[in-house]
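// run 5 | inverse folding | seed 20
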């Protein structure tokens, strides 16, 4: 351990970066070589096959293989084969008649002699085109055999087109050459980058070694990170100058030291407290906090925030997280796909291939029609995909989820958090409607969803209506109270979450319900700084 401590930081950085570069480039080079070799062999296969097929259709070859072929016709086959080999950049084009005698060969002495691979030739004369790797007159070669047909569609001979393994090896080597050049250049750049990085880091650390800096910071970090409260300090430019681990846990996404504090956090905790250092309570991103703010030395230096999360229910974390809604929608889509796949698999096992051919286009058409209908009205892919998942989820409960033809949501440039909030709103309301309809005895259970975007007010308008059993008037008063639910213990967070999100954006959240008739939810959700894309 002492020996490592005595090694200068810049040496360690250079060594690690160079080693990582070598390993990364080496691994990449190996993988690329394999891919290039595979692609080169596939290209060779395609070149040999297309050349052989072209030669098999050539009138000169067909005429030379015919029974009444003259000597000049046969000589023309050799000339054509040599030209074709040179043009296609292959080693040989060998034409063989149905008696297995050669009409062409790179070595003219072999013309008129028996073909050296009678087994491959007979297989081709039976009408089967194929590849073969065998030792021939030119050595180990890779060949493609193609039968030649006359005008009566009778096999009168074959064409064998190929390359020797030496030629193939040279071709692959040539294809790999740029990789080696790239690896050498990459390694040189990596070494130069390592040296630059080492010098830069050393300069930033004021020429101090890490163990010296660590020793000076241990006490400070230990004290800050042992606090139950979140600690966050910013300078007069709203840049983070200090924070502890609890702050990261309570306010995910606040950034690192030196980053500019997100404006919504600054306005919630700091901007409202410039003249008041008393402890206050605030609701931020659907969670409740107690906090106090103190000035650091003078207003020109910055401010210190101490805060705690006072939300009592741990279960609310999962309920607030849009990931749960994403996962549920994805599971519904997966289940729908598996049902269709099982139907196709069953038909294949029963060998009812005609029905498979009929079913697949029908399933594809239905699916594409659903996607097309949604995408034509909802231009934001994440929300459109989520709604498709919810349609499948509702279908699993024998409920029709209908997206109104009047719906239209353009593609908007908004924060990812806003997209997640929309998912939370839609997901919780639709899930509540599904729950309500699950207990309903209606013949046709239905949920109608209408999405509209008001360009002028930059507001998303959502209307969701079901024909379930409705909500009693006395329950409507309590329905937004956290923990209240008609479904039992551990529920009652969904609508509270939706209400908190909408109120935080100064929107409108209205629920109207009539027993035995159904429930209608109307929402106006302002989208901050939204702009069409």
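// decoded
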């Amino acid at each position: 351990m002492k020996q490592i401590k005595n090694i200068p930081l810049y040496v360690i950085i250079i060594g690690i970066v160079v080693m990582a570069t070598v390993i990364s480039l080496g691994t990449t080079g190996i993988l690329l070589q394999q891919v290039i070799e595979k692609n080169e062999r596939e290209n060779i296969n395609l070149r040999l096959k297309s050349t052989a097929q072209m030669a098999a259709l050539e009138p000169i070859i067909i005429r030379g293989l015919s029974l009444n072929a003259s000597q000049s016709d046969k000589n023309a086959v050799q000339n054509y084969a040599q030209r074709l080999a040179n043009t296609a950049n292959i080693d040989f084009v060998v034409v063989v008649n149905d008696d297995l005698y050669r009409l062409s060969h790179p070595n003219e002495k072999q013309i008129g002699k028996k073909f050296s691979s009678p087994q491959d030739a007979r297989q081709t004369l039976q009408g089967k085109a194929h590849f073969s790797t065998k030792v021939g007159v030119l050595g180990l070669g890779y060949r493609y055999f193609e039968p030649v047909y006359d005008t009566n569609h009778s096999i009168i001979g074959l064409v064998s087109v190929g390359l020797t393994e030496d030629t193939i090896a040279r071709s692959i080597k040539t294809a790999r050459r740029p990789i080696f050049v790239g690896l050498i250049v990459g390694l040189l750049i990596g070494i130069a980058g390592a040296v630059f990085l080492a010098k830069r880091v050393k300069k930033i650390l004021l020429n101090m070694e890490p163990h010296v800096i660590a020793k000076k910071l241990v006490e400070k970090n230990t004290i800050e990170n042992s606090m139950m409260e979140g600690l966050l300090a910013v300078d007069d430019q709203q840049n983070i100058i200090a924070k502890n681990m609890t702050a990261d846990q309570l306010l995910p996404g606040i950034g690192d030291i030196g980053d500019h504090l997100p404006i919504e956090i600054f306005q919630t905790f700091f901007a409202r407290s410039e003249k008041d250092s008393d402890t206050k309570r605030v609701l931020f991103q659907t969670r409740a906090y107690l906090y106090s703010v103190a000035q650091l030395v003078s207003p020109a230096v910055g401010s210190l925030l101490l805060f705690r999360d006072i939300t009592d229910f741990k279960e609310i974390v999962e309920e607030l997280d849009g990931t749960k809604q994403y996962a549920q929608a994805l599971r519904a889509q997966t289940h729908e796909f598996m049902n269709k796949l099982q139907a196709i698999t069953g038909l294949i096992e029963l060998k009812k291939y005609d029905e498979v051919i009929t079913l697949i286009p029908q399933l594809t058409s239905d699916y594409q029609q659903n996607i097309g209908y949604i995408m034509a009205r909802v231009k934001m892919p994440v929300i459109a995909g989520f709604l498709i998942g919810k349609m499948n989820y509702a279908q699993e409960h024998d409920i029709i989820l209908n997206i109104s033809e009047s719906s239209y949501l353009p593609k908007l440039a908004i924060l990812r958090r806003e997209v997640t909030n929309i998912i939370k709103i839609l997901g919780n309301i639709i899930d509540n409607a599904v729950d309500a309809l699950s207990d309903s005895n209606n013949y046709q259970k239905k949920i109608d969803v209408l999405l509209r975007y008001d360009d002028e007010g930059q507001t998303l308008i959502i209307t969701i209506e079901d024909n379930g059993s409705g909500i009693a008037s006395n329950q409507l008063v309590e329905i937004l109270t956290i923990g209240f639910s008609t479904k039992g213990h551990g529920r009652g967070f969904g609508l509270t979450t939706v209400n908190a999100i909408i109120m935080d954006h100064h929107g409108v959240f209205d629920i109207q319900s009539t027993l035995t008739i159904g429930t209608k939810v109307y929402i106006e959700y302002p989208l901050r700084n939204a702009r069409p894309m």
